[in-house]
Design goal:
274 residues, alpha/beta, TIM Barrel, eight-stranded parallel β-barrel, 8 strands, binds 3-methyl-2-oxobutanoic acid
Length: 274
């Protein structure tokens, strides 16, 4: 493929420039084939640590490892040409010090070929975000409901429901933005607060269960495809793949049991055996 005809990946400055402009379309992705299917339609694919719950059946994201993120991040990069791929830094891989965060972020960037990393936390992560981006690692922030903090928060709870909580969440957003993050996810945040933060900071806000006024939106792909057994209440399902998969498995089982499995498929598998 010539250099000219190669599709150019969306860049960090292009996403940053979408502040207050065309909304940024983001989805999560953990898997090469589905990443390829959605790549033409999205700006950012996030290899989220939600994969621990969605792909591995964990209760929370706390058990996700760096190696898991790298394996899935590489798959998503291999499956895509256009979307900017961001890989989540898992719990325990960045909180201790900016230096440890840099070492682990370098592994993610080098071993997956992704463009950027995402990490959770507001004011307390300002120094680390600054340290990473000064050394060539673009960072997406994540504030509000931060699932890696689930034990401290006592569950997955919407943040900023009372106005007393607003000042510290606004401070989180300001510090993440001033530290040099190129965008910030606002998760599980009261709608008027998410809209206010969107007006207050200079980088794009990406909402999930936050506000339609954010500069972009992200959903977990499996939730919006109808594949998740208990999706969050705010999720709109754009397909019903869960029901279709169960229906297909039932139809297949019926054919196998009736010994009416398609002859062509049988012949093909015999040829392959020989
Ligand atoms: O892990 C994840 O999928 C995320 C998104 C929900 C923003 O962080």
């Amino acid at each position: 493929m010539s250099v000219q005809s190669k599709i150019k990946r969306i860049t960090v400055p292009e996403i940053r420039a979408r502040k207050g402009a065309e909304p940024v379309v983001c989805l999560t992705s953990y898997h090469a084939h589905t990443a390829r299917m959605v790549d033409p339609y999205v700006d950012v694919l996030l290899v989220g640590d939600s994969l621990g719950m969605v792909m591995y059946g964990m209760e929370s994201t706390l058990g996700v490892t760096l190696d898991m993120m790298i394996a899935h991040g590489s798959a998503v990069v291999r499956g895509t040409d256009r979307a900017l791929v961001v890989v989540d830094m898992p719990f325990g891989s960045y909180e201790e010090s900016p230096e440890i965060a840099f070492r682990n972020a370098c592994r993610i960037i080098k071993e997956t070929g992704c463009t950027a990393v995402k990490l959770e936390g507001g004011a307390r992560m300002g120094e680390t975000i600054y340290y990473l981006q000064e050394r060539g690692i673009p960072v997406m922030g994540h504030i509000g409901l931060t699932p890696q903090n689930v034990q401290v928060m006592g569950g997955f709870k919407t943040q900023g429901r009372t106005q007393e909580e607003w000042a510290s969440l606004e401070e989180d957003a300001r510090i993440v933005s001033e530290a040099g993050a190129f965008a910030v996810v606002l998760e599980g945040m009261a709608e008027p607060l998410a809209a206010k933060i969107t007006d207050e900071i200079v980088i794009p806000t990406i909402g999930i269960g936050a506000s339609a006024r954010c500069d972009g939106q992200i959903l977990v792909l499996e939730d919006m495809l109808g594949l998740s057994p208990n999706p969050p209440k705010f999720v709109k399902e754009f397909a019903t793949l869960g029901a279709q998969i169960a229906g297909a498995a039932e139809a297949y089982a019926r054919e196998v049991r009736a010994r009416s499995f398609p002859a062509a498929a049988h012949t093909y598998s015999m040829k392959k055996v020989r």
